[in-house]
Here is the input.
Amino acid sequence: MNDLSNYRKSYEKSELLETNIPEDPINLFNRWFHEVEDFGRVDEVNAMTVSTIGLDGFPKSRVVLLKKFSEEGFIFYTNYNSEKGKAIEHNPHVCLSFFWPNSERQVIIKGIASKTSESVSDGYFDSRPDGSKLGAIVSNQSEVIPSRTFLEENLKALEKELEGKPIHRPKHWGGFLVTPIEVEFWQGRPNRLHDRIRYISQDDFSWKIERLSS
Here is the structure.
């Protein structure tokens, strides 16, 4: 057995106080996101974990890239026929989480996922490099395949077929918008007395703010 009980770190880089937070979580997320980005040493500050409840009843988490956020919510893109796509179609309750260790910060978002409009999905797909477009078309994401060679040969065939032609978004690929109903911000603090602030969506479109014990 690998004993990891001595893996310890003192969190001392910042604090999260009610006197210095906005009334809604998107503004705070925006502030934190750009502070982490400006601080540097994070390869992909928009990397997030998406957790879903699968068709088999088990939760599953995977890292994807956040592509847009606004007051409406958080958008990422995927193959709708993938394991995560099918899971979301079956149960749209999802969880997003960001962990930024260099800033000793974490954000956990509970929300409801829905497909973005076709125009939004088309707009993002058209902005991608051709290689990424072809990859989205050729890969039956999450399906069992005989080998990597099988995938690479299919890509070569598709490249030849579409050479010099426009590459259109396949209907099975597009965006999900996660509308938040609860957002928790975690700031590491000394002695494991971390700051945890939770925003809960209210019926009047305001947010209830609570402090949680660490």
In short: The mean pLDDT is 94.
